[in-house]
Amino acid sequence: MYAKKTALTVLSAVLPVLLVPALFAPPAHAAPTPTPQADGKGQPPKAAAPPASMSSVGGAALGQPGTQVNLLPGAPALPANLTGRSWIVADAETGEVLAAHNAHWRLPPASTMKMLFADTVLPGLPKDQVHKVSEQELAGIGSGSSLVGLKEDAEYTVHDLWLGVFLRSGNDAVHVLSAMNGGVEKTVKDMQAHAEELQALDTHVVSPDGYDAPGQVSSAYDLTLIARSGLQKEDFREYCGTASAKFPGRQEPGKPRETFEIQNTNRLMTGAGGLPPYKGIAGVKNGNTTMAGSTFTGAAQQGKKKLLVTVMNPDTGGANSVYEETADLLDWGFAAIGKVKPVGELVPPKSADTSSLGSPAQSHENNPLAAGAPGAGMGTALGITGGVLAVVAGGAYVINRRLPRGRGRRSSGPA
Length: 415
Known about the structure:
Blueprint: E1 4-6, H1 8-11, E2 67-68, E3 70-71, E4 86-91, E5 96-101, H2 113-121, E6 130-132, E7 155-157, H3 158-168, H4 171-180, H5 184-198, H6 220-230, H7 234-240, E8 242-248, E9 259-263, H8 267-270, E10 281-289, E11 293-302, E12 305-312, H9 321-336, E13 340-341, E14 344-345, E15 388-393, E16 396-401
Antiparallel strand pairs: 1-8, 2-5, 3-13, 4-5, 4-12, 5-14, 6-7, 8-9, 10-11, 11-12, 15-16
């Protein structure tokens, strides 16, 4: 295992996040939104409007187009000049959605899809396992992909490979880990099944690395749900919260193996591109492709407040816009907690439900309303549940889960 260096702000701000079961009715889902086609300049069209009604997972308001927020007296106004086609601000512990804009609009996710890849595959591969990379494992990587620089016939630990995924968004590392998981096709199926389990039902997986592909979509809501699940895993928190690390390089006979430094491409963590590091940032993942534009899911903690923000495809252009809008929404969220009425919630996994306490959401493939039947996109607003306490002591995470009073005990689902 190679030494790593974590951002100073992360040392006191790593985000242990819990999933809290909630009582809810089976939501309806809007028909899938086609993957946008690029315009003549190779950029995704900005004029396309969101569907008139979308999935109501998490609450009916989240299925409506436009900005959803309920400001109480004394609440700060939302940031001006937000241009993301879709965004969401959620309390990471309670799951309350504080505000959202086209939260369920199904859009290309770019490398934020790697959060689902990691949350799906990471638990099954021991981090100290050593693997020799083959030529076949590096085949089929999309042109122009971001790479960490894996070499054929070189050996890497699983820990090395995950650092390559999170810090450099390395599609080469994704393909090797997929091969270790049984191949790209199996990994895509595993990811889709896990998305369904998490009730990330806007998400359709085509490639494990998030590379542009016809039909590959997710949403700000789903990406936030996926990040919340991933952040429950210690290794996931480590990798997404690492600012820079030493990565294995060439191995010459009779000499120590060379290393080189890789830096996280999350500019709110490293301060690259002229941006100041965001106070309390703890991850999670950024992405950028021709079809998706810029995407980012960020987690941050200030005091006892923990937030998750996802922004998809700001209209302003520029490499920093997605980070700037995320930072503005984080600032707003930290000021607004307790001063807004939630517009929805981040739901628990299907396996967290019991028949006596609400039915699980249905797959969009099996939902009869998904094809645009009358009532598609309409649903019942969900109650918000709390009662979560996360204790950080001595560098170890002690998680105390408390179910909502009066609800009884039910399975919490996979960690």
